[in-house]
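Task 17 of the worksheet. Students: predict the tertiary structure of the chain below and write it out as structure tokens. Keep your answer in the requested format; marks are given for formatting as well as content.
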Amino acid sequence: MKYLVMLCDGMADLPFAALDDKTPMELAHKPCMDSLAKKGEVGLVKTVQDGMKPGSDVANLAVLGYDAKKYYSGRSPLEAASIGIDLKPTDVTFRCNLVTLSDELEYSDKTMIDYCADDISSAEAKILIEYIQEKLGNDTFSYYPGVSYRHCLVWDNGIVDGHNLTPPHDITDRPIKEYIPQGENVAMLYDMMKKSYDLLKDHPVNLERIKRGKRPANSIWLWGEGTKPALDSFMDKFNKKGSMISAVDLLKGIAICADMNSVDVDGATGYIDTNFEGKCKAAIEEFKNGQDLVYIHVEAPDECGHRGEAQNKVKSLEIIDEKILTPVVEFLRGYDDFAVLVCPDHPTPLCIKTHSSDPVPYLIYSSRSEIDGVDAFTEATAKSTGNYIAEGYTMMEYFLTK
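Model answer:
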């Protein structure tokens, strides 16, 4: 039996005026998803537990079968694992975004223009983060380059409580004054953020980006604090050999911590220009190499949601369906039995440009137990069935044993 998880990050949405009051799932041409829905189980699943923030960290842990209230120790430690940082139990890590802030004189008066600095390239970002490490790093604080705008700060013998930090993608186009780090243990962190602006605004990398019409990565933004994670092995937990295919350090880190095979795909970016075909080929190769379950994570719908790009969000779902899901399902039909789970981790509604905690639609298809399903896979049809999984972390066990 082979198992495919097609995780469309942030796919779920609300009716949106620019889409004729439809959701991207309703408007997208996705014949493979819809054909599976006609013969599979469709419903809603609550992936974000009460009292937890609706991040891709806790939501993807849930889809993978891990109770975040038991296993979650912060977002950045999972990303640190992907980068290859060997954390000590006393280390505290932070996600370090390279962002674009407006140019007001006082740092606290600036506005969050772009949480990803125009999707800065990893090569450019590495230069900037290494420069920040040279100027601000010391025996206590160390900066590590990651992918694109996503990087890591490690605080040796740090304090994990009392930070109250805000993800930058939650405050796009908003003045940062109300969201600057608050709490008793953040003075040093905020000081580094302020200093980073003075260091980066005239850096040659940014001056060159401005010449090319790109936004400068003129500040760091710290958030997502946490400590070294300890996930049970996916194999020990479910007796399945699992692989993760993602462009995002967070998902790669989860896979590494769960002893899954983390697969790198050339040209995978985390946006709509990602290498969809490469992810498809990588998934098929993992199945051929004997893996029982392959988890394909595509970030593009989420990024489009954060940017308010309605048409691109629709397009991203259509590309996922055409270039990943359709050929992988066709390949799996060569096996006697296979099952497919399609779902987002959380909604990223275009109207708010950030995550919400609402339950998300799921689709489970099993070749050995086809049923009468629904005509199309959408938020509305998922709700109409009455199927509801209240504890998202139980869905993986249900999927594997259904």
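Marker's comment: The CA atoms of residues 284 and 332 lie 8 Å apart. The chain has a mean pLDDT of 95.
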